[in-house]
Design brief:
The complex is a heterodimer of chains A (345) and B (327). With 345 residues, chain A is an alpha/beta fold. Chain A contains 13 helices and 13 strands. The chains are: A alpha/beta (345), B alpha/beta (327). At the A-B interface, strand 1, helix 7, helix 8, helix 9 and helix 11 of A face helix 7, helix 8, helix 9, helix 10 and strand 11 of B.
């Protein structure tokens, strides 16, 4: 059991290693229906920095992560527009969307790794976990079988699995959910990537195990200056984890900024509504209820004109219903996609 | 709490045998629920929290006798349902219903929503055949789905809507007690808030008692007046929700409360090491001692009893010194 320092102390960000510009990933549902899952997303990320991407189901948060990893290039998905500029370990900057599949294979694992919500569906049930970690090392770093296995055991130790040599010989079904997620992290970190994309990695876990995994990711990140995109639906989790947060709604980023600033002084009505419907456990403010957001999540097949959130927003006025709203800087890199943020501040 | 509780369980225990070999020889026991006492008044909501493997879902099922208890007494309205014959129990189930985390798994995909609710109403002979349709429509409207949903199949609805349908079916027969097993855990926060608000309304209007099982402490804090913290089949701490979350006395509750992510992160967060041990081989004495940072050698000696450590707050821990430090 350990005592943790205030997680809000943020490290100084280094140079940007990932710049996503105006990314549009669409899905062709049938001949005349297009689902604009991600529609004009711009984000950037520096070395050692953690960006949380927050949103509800269907907001486009996972699709953004999968597009960076180039896992959504085939029909029905297509990247319609945008650039994903990534600066690799050798200092070269490449647009990932324009690489050949062979070039991209060298990036995946070695430069950018990804972990998912359900480790069971990413682990092969018929191989011991140690072999699965070693496979990546042999492929990307051309290690011998023996060296790769030794490194796999070291990695299991690094992610806090006790008796790593014995565990390396076990199969995924013999491990608990928390341990499987640790194995996934070990596998992701095997080649010392510059960027880790974590898609809801703690959602299926108990709060106690979730806290362990979050602390582990933070500790590993501090060692390696790895950047991290943490996709989650849980705004509360973000506070103790991320440097910056981007809130997504209906395929767009609606608010972005330093995590403390966004959570304390949200400048978009959707972010405020999202915070209001979280049942908050807080001894200081006493018992709180929940306030649901009125209306339904926007249909991404037929998104509303103007501000996507206007049909559910208590503050919407005439222009909100017709004007395409741009992200605007409210100061200090805190961006919002709201026409009325000055009146509502 | 009223004088006669609606539900009173004493020493409820559920052990699952571990069998091996051709003859299914019993080689051990999984002690899923181990001597739980609880009382629930009419219209009251009791939250049950704990990690996966703490036995909270098993407890919910045993209380409805969906699983046979190994030992213990379960009195519902003064009648012992643990000893009730099967045919009587079937009729009695009208008073006790359950909803689950995954409403898709509990709704038959080949049955329209209306047919599913009608089936429950017919089974319990709730109303005459001629009134069935009106009752189904009324119920669907009550949960905010709209009566025209009756003719559609579950696949036409989103997760939040399916949970509303499952609630409509459970409540259509007019139960007085509902076991809600992680009813909002699979839903987005905005949908979760809607379903919580709906359950709160229904509970008030129908004077419904709810056993609300959840691993999410923030949800339980909002819905339940009283809470019970379980670990390896036993109660670690129980009492008034506001009191327990503000000043947890048991080291396990302290760790659980501390692990809940918050918008205002607290310094000095406790991160528990290790994971919940196997219930087939629980530690002796206090079952939590293997992960407890305050454990003493005495903790292994005897199972600590639940004691009232403050008005309306019971804790099963022998370390009075830490309990006092928390107060």
């Amino acid at each position: 059991m350990t005592q943790m320092a205030d997680p809000r102390e943020t490290p100084h960000p280094g140079p940007a290693i990932l710049r996503i510009r105006n990314l549009c990933t669409w899905f062709d549902i049938d001949e005349d229906t297009v689902l604009r899952a991600v529609n004009g997303v711009t984000l950037s990320l520096s070395e050692g920095e953690t960006l949380a991407v927050v949103g509800e189901s269907g907001s486009g948060k996972s699709v953004t992560g999968l597009t960076v990893m180039r896992l959504l290039m085939r029909s029905p998905a297509r990247v319609v527009e945008g650039e994903v500029l990534f600066t690799g370990k050798d200092g070269r900057t490449l647009d990932l969307l324009r690489l050949s599949e062979a070039e991209m294979r060298r990036i995946r694992g070695r430069e950018i790794a990804m972990i998912f919500q359900d480790p069971m569906s990413s682990l092969n049930p018929v191989f011991p976990v140690g072999d699965q970690i070693a496979e990546g090392l042999r492929l990307h770093q051309r290690m011998t079988r023996r060296a790769a296995m030794a490194r796999a055991v070291e990695l299991l130790d690094l992610v806090g699995i006790s008796e790593p040599a014995r565990r390396a010989g076990e199969y995924p079904h013999q491990l608990s959910g928390g341990m499987r997620q640790r194995v996934m992290i070990a596998m992701a970190l095997a080649c010392d990537p510059r960027l880790l994309i974590a898609d809801e990695p703690t959602t299926a876990l108990d709060v106690t195990i979730q806290a362990q995994i979050v602390e582990l990711l933070k500790a590993l990140q501090a060692r390696s200056r790895m950047a991290m995109i943490f996709v989650t639906h849980d705004l509360n989790l973000v506070a103790g984890l991320a440097d910056r947060v981007a809130v997504m709604y209906c395929g767009q980023v609606v608010e972005e900024g330093p995590v403390g600033v966004v959570l304390d002084t949200p400048r978009h009505p959707y972010t405020r509504a999202l915070l209001d419907c979280i049942p908050e456990h807080d001894a200081e403010t006493g018992r709180a209820g929940v306030r649901p957001i009125p209306g339904r999540v926007a249909n991404p097949l037929a998104p509303p004109e103007g501000c996507r959130f206007h049909p559910r927003c208590a503050h919407a006025e005439g222009p909100c219903r017709v004007t395409e709203v741009a992200l605007e800087d409210t100061g200090g890199g805190h961006m919002t996609r709201c026409l009325r943020w000055r009146d509502l501040a | 709490m009223s004088a006669v509780p609606l539900l009173e369980a004493t020493g409820v225990t559920k052990h699952f045998p571990i069998t091996r070999g051709l003859m299914a020889r019993t080689v051990g026991q999984v002690r899923a629920v181990d001597g739980i006492d609880l009382r629930l008044a009419r219209g009251e909501c009791l939250g049950v929290v704990g990690e996966s493997g703490s036995g909270k879902s098993t407890l919910g099922r045993v209380l409805l006798r969906l699983l046979e208890p190994t030992a213990g007494r379960i009195a519902f309205d003064g009648r012992d349902i643990a000893a009730m014959p099967a045919d009587e129990l079937r009729a009695f189930r009208r008073h006790m219903q359950m909803i689950f985390q995954d409403p898709f798994a509990s709704l038959n995909p080949r049955m329209t929503v209306g047919a599913a609710i009608r089936e429950a109403l017919r089974l319990h002979a709730v109303c005459p055949e001629a009134e069935l349709s009106d009752r189904v429509t009324a119920m669907l409207e009550r949960v905010g789905i709209g009566g025209d949903a009756a003719g559609r199949y579950p696949r036409a609805f989103s997760g939040g809507q399916r949970q509303r349908i499952a609630i409509a079916r459970a409540l259509a027969v007019g139960p007085r007690f509902l076991v809600a097993d992680e009813p909002v855990s699979a839903l987005d926060v905005s949908i979760q808030a809607e379903v919580i608000a709906l359950l709160q309304d229904l509970r008030r209007d129908l004077d419904l008692a709810i056993l609300f099982i959840s691993h999410d402490l923030s949800v339980v804090e909002v819905v339940a007046e009283r809470v019970m913290v379980m670990y390896l089949g036993r109660t670690m701490e129980a009492g008034e929700t506001a009191r327990i979350f503000a000043r947890p006395r048991h080291p396990y509750t302290q760790a659980l409360v501390s692990a809940v992510p918050s918008r205002r992160p607290r310094p000095g967060r406790i991160v528990l090491t290790g994971e919940i041990p196997s219930p087939s081989n629980p530690p002796s004495g206090c079952v939590f001692r293997t992960r407890c940072r305050h454990a003493l050698p005495e903790c292994a000696a005897a199972v600590p009893a639940l004691r009232e450590v403050a008005p309306g707050q019971w804790s099963a821990c022998i370390r009075d010194d830490i309990a006092e430090a928390a107060a």
